[in-house]
Design brief:
Number of strands: 3
Distance between the termini: 13 Å
Radius of gyration: 14 Å
Order of helices and strands: EHHEE
Number of helices: 2
Helix content: 25-40%
Oligomer: single chain
Strand order of the largest sheet: 1-3-2
Strand content: 15-25%
Structural class: alpha+beta
Amino acid sequence: MEITISAERQDITIHPGSLEAEVVQNIRMILTTVKGTLPLDRNFGLSPRIIDTPIERAKALAVKEIHEQVNRYEPRARIVQAGFSGDNATSSDGRLLPWVIVRIADE
């Protein structure tokens, strides 16, 4: 089963009702956390180093880091595809909001 997960913030559920819900929530946390801001694990999340980086380089760095973070922190999921909402280089706000399509491993 493939699931699309975006970096849109949503409420956290302490006990997700299914494996899929838990994996989705975990990956969303990776996509929305700035590296260095989680007190007990400063390596969790995405690096802010891409800020003010040219758009194509920022995309490449972010995709690489998303793959590394998901492999490290959510090994039950495999990324099928990664991309960005608002990835138009002429966008007035210049924001890249990551999304991923993942396949969840059967346990």
